[in-house]
Amino acid sequence: MAAKWGEIAVKEVVSALGGRQISGSPDRLVRGLSTDSRRMVPGYMFLALRGERYDGHDFLAKAVNAAAAGVIVQSDKTIPKELTTNNLVVITVSSTLKALGDLALWWRKQWGGRVIAITGSNGKSTTKEMAASILSLKANTMRSPGNFNNLIGLPLTILSLEEDHKMAVLEMGMNRAGEITRLTQIAEPDVGLITNVAKAHLEGLGDLQGVVKAKGELLRMMPEESTAILNGDDELTAGLASTFQGPIVTFGLGKMNQVRAGDIKRIGDCFQAFNIYVNKERIQVKIHLPGIHNVFNALGGAAIASCLSISKELIAQGLEDFRPLKGRLQIIDLEGGIQIIDDTYNSNPSSLRAALQTIKGLDVKKKGLVVGLGEMMELGKETSRYHFDAGQLIAGMGARYLVVLGEHGPEVIEGACKGGMNITQTQLATNHTEMSDAIKGNVREGDIVFLKGSRKVALDKVVEVLKGYFGVSSA
Fold it and tell me: Alpha-carbon distance 240 to 325, whole Å?
């Protein structure tokens, strides 16, 4: 690795950014980069990002007081005179967001390891974690932390790569056209995977074809020597194959896929065992997750590993070692035989349907199903219909009680009543406390409590209340 933090001079940063240094020494060494003045480390450069609700330029003094080596600012901003008169390094650029990506691309080229990029409407995070669980058995592997999957988080992840990292598994999210294009430019992936294409982020993309085109930006921007991995069972995803000229691997349940699953068996509530066939080779695996959609996530992880020549033994071990991510169909046993199905990380129509299908298949006898549903965001002009449909789906599951939080809660309740629930079996909550109280007042011993909503609704707060109220089972 040609570049290491602590050994990089300011002049190298300026060159990578295409910026202009207006004060300070070009030979000063830089220990790292930060975009958060609250977490400044002495010797780091502070890059001032402009957002919808904040402007990093308002926190320049705070960063300097925390012993920043210098600041990177936009050339259209007025720079306080005192910043340029005390030998502090000040670099100006036309756009700090673009500069962040440009610096990350430069760093990625300096690093030179293998990059795996994952996008799709559903399953990105779980597939990322499954792939990383496998790859880390072979080599030191970096993965995108949390939701660091956007034009800020992905560059920051790349900039944290060190010489001993050999692989990086990066998640790519988006809510408007062009974002995946830019993320792919920055990451230069060796392997790119699309999990599926579904109705998500319609507000910024217009319709399902807009989603298809946006996800396909990954393939259009990857180098031809890269390998594309596509969900071969998803017609919209498989249809993107024609946009990529390099090698393509498909995964799914269909026999036409190079990586496929068969002989799927459910083991209790939380486990599945199945065979993965990579061409003619069979891998026996067990995962700690229910649901057919998680079989697809495992296949995606296995497909990535096979493209990187990882052995079948490590693929099996990595998948079995993986544990469910918080808020992604996580099963939590409470006292009184109550189970929480925590799927609060995010929600859209297709992921809701998949989650309900998984609950329907749980191999346990329950007295009832209580559902806490949060609003689904960014669905555009069809938002009301999708929420109405969600209510009908929940009623069709035979839910005994439904409580909804969010602006479109009335449409969910209307759909549930149309699907056969009585209005007395439903409640519209105005906050997390009301939802928690409604569930506590209607849950019975042995019930399933299913919680799901878009991230902004933050239903994980309800999960924590219920865990505290009933107590987590130690059995």
Answer: 29
* Confidence label for 363 from pLDDT (cuts 50, 70 and 90): very low
CATH assignment of 8-94?
Answer: 3.40.1390.10
What is the residue extent of each domain of the chain?
A: 8-94, 113-321, 330-470
Instruction: Find the mean pLDDT for residues 436-450.
Output: 94
**Separation between Cα atoms, residue 331 and residue 340, nearest integer Å:** 6
Q: Which fold has domain 113-321?
A: UDP-N-acetylmuramoyl-L-alanine:D-glutamate ligase (3.40.1190)
The CB density around residue 331, as the number of other CB atoms within 10 Å, is 19
Cβ 17 vs Cβ 45: under 8 Å: no
Tens of pLDDT, residue by residue over 373-400, are 999 988 888 899 999 999 999 999 999 9
Over residues 450-464, the pLDDT tens digits come to 999 999 999 999 999
For the cut 50, the answer to whether the pLDDT of residue 219 exceeds it is: yes
Contacts of 313 (CB under 8 A, 6+ apart): none
For the domain made up of 330-470, give the CATH fold: Protein-Tyrosine Phosphatase; Chain A (3.90.190)
Beta strands in 239-321 (DSSP E): 248-252, 259-267, 271-278, 281-287
The whole-model pTM stands at 0.86
Any idea how long the chain is? 475
Q: Residue range 211-231: average pLDDT?
A: 92
Alpha helices, H only, 66-123: 96-111
Of the candidates 211, 105, 222, 106, which has an alpha carbon nearest to the alpha carbon of residue 154? 105
Q: Let me know: does 465 contact 436? Beta carbons within 8 Å.
A: yes
